[in-house]
Amino acid sequence: MLHNFFHVYVVKTLHQFFHSILRHLYSYHNYSLYKVGDKIRLPRGPSPREGVVEVWHDMHPVWSRICHRDWDTNDAKVVCRQLGFTRAVETVAVLGADLRYPPPNGTDDSPDTHYWPQTLHCAGTEASLSDCPHGGWNIHNCSKPSESAGVFCNTGDCDFDSHSCGYHQYCKVGSCQGWGRRPPPIPPANSTAGSGQCMATNVSGSAQLVSPFLHSSTRCMEFAYFMHGNATMRLAVRLWVDSLPAEGNALWMMSGKLKDDWHVARIGIGVDKNFQVMFDGEVIDGSDGIVAIDNVTLSDSPCQARKCSDLPVPAHGYVMYDGDAAHYGCWPGYQLLQPSNRTCLGNGNWTGDATVCQGRSEDYVPLIAGVAVSVFLLAAIGGTIYKLHRRQNRHLIAASRRERAEQNEYGRECPRRLRPLEFSRDRITLGRQLGKGQYGVVYKAEAWQIAGSRTCTNVAVKQLILSSSDAYMTFHKELLLMEGLEQHPNVVSLLGCCTREEPFYLILEFVSGGSLQSLLRKSQPDEDPGGAGTELTNSELTKFAMDVARGMAYLASKKIIHRDLASRNVLVTDDRVSKVSDFGMSRRGEEYERTTEVPLPVRWMAPESLFEGKYTSRSDVWSFGVLLWEIVMFGKTPYPGMTNHEVRDRIKDGYRMDRPRNCEDHM
């Protein structure tokens, strides 16, 4: 853990160091942005909104810098307002504006004399610095360059018509797709009448656009977005902090084929520090497309009214609001100590408790000391126990060895061969719950750069919720089994796992259409008398059966017995492709005999499994036959009108369900 701590610290420090050097070498231009008559400017910044504060002194006539002493946010607000901006994002004072914004090599257009009152105390509401209370002009004793005052201004609104508002591309190594200001007809329409420009990119892959710094008081961000082309495109909005992308922290995402329509998105946020956002455009399928944004506006008020007040923002973290739902997140290097989701109730209260973002590298010294003491005590206790029991029954020793062997295979430590699948949970953002089983809960989630993807991917995360040995054994058996499978179009794929700390995650392919059982039941003809496009055709029903048969044939070729094949465990894509899922009860081998008591899917079980506890690939064939009955009967429960006990008795007597009337011969 100390290695990880030092690695994160060194990498971050080096990044900041080289970032500073690059800013000095390449980014600075001699801007002189000031309004005639206002006598103020910000020279030497990377953009017209950032730099050293200089004012015009009429008596001498020179440009003069302001001493950093007593320089605060209220003074910075007045400077930004005087320059035409709406807010001061950052004051640059104690660290030294001249150190941050050095002059170009070989030049120095800033004066040596610092004229301005030392008693400058603006309230923040003045129209210009000359309106602030002060004791008149004076020569400052700020002799060091590092004692100059600076500011970083920003505006809450940007239509991209006259400039890019400080937005810039984020170029990954070896790749830099082009965001830039584009006039019509690319894209062919704009979000507001009379607006002639927007930020757009022709993407054949992905392109990232980063905003200037936004103030921590921002509570709502609104923007218009546009997607044009025949390809399916995706636009995601992510948080940046400390000039680094906070991977996995997706605030908002939209994908699809939106054609030529502009849409408006609103993101409610609460952040504990000044931040940036990244717009991430991507073409998912197809060769090219256009993604555009326009009219970005920021507000210090909530995006929408709710009965609950805003939640406190955790230190080193953020809160994202989606209607009456709130989702917590932490900056890289920190983790949540409580559940990440809360809901606003009608009585004005939030469900759940407040959360804390704790650094992963905190308190390592006492932890190491505690571990050392624990190891010493355990060694002493273990030695004593060994001396007391060394001559006990050899059968107990053998049993203990078998138990340890079982724990080594299915225990809490991830087996070595699975380590390439290990994925950082910092790059996962959990979403809504999809389902819940005996040992775990399944969530829809987003994973950043998983399975070779360069951006964010929708995934399904199965989270282990129990800490018993049976739960861990079941989890690792499913993980080990799926690890040996190659990608198959009719079997849900394993993408990764998180087993270095609890709760354990199994990261699976996300199948957007839900379960086959749900689709069948929604399409039952008697539930839609008008037949308004919900009833499935016979060819579609047959395709479901064929897809499942192909998936099960592949599993049989890998000597895997599923043991729980049913329509509820088959997922369907938006393109109506069926995929076999849920391997929690699956086992590897040509034959398996049940030795533990677990809840059983009685209505789908073959007689030899039901009465003798034996499973083979032929048992899965029986379950497939019951699945065919479900498909033809649009998801109805097999053996209708019977209890599980009655089903067992009738099957034992040789009973078989009748062929449904609407079942065609080929089925």
From TrEMBL:
Residues 40-154 form the SRCR domain. Residues 428-667 form the Protein kinase domain. One of its GO terms (biological process) is regulation of developmental process. Its main location: membrane. InterPro entries: ConA-like_dom_sf, Kinase-like_dom_sf, MAM_dom, Prot_kinase_dom, Protein_kinase_ATP_BS, RTK, Ser-Thr/Tyr_kinase_cat_dom, SRCR. It is a single-pass type I membrane protein. It catalyses: L-tyrosyl-[protein] + ATP = O-phospho-L-tyrosyl-[protein] + ADP + H(+). Residues 156-305 form the MAM domain. It is found in: Endomembrane system; Membrane. ATP binds at K462. PROSITE patterns: MAM_2 (PS50060), PROTEIN_KINASE_ATP (PS00107), PROTEIN_KINASE_DOM (PS50011), PROTEIN_KINASE_TYR (PS00109), SRCR_2 (PS50287), SUSHI (PS50923). The chain crosses the membrane at residues 364-386. This is FGFR4 protein. It comes from Branchiostoma lanceolatum (Common lancelet). The gene is FGFR4.
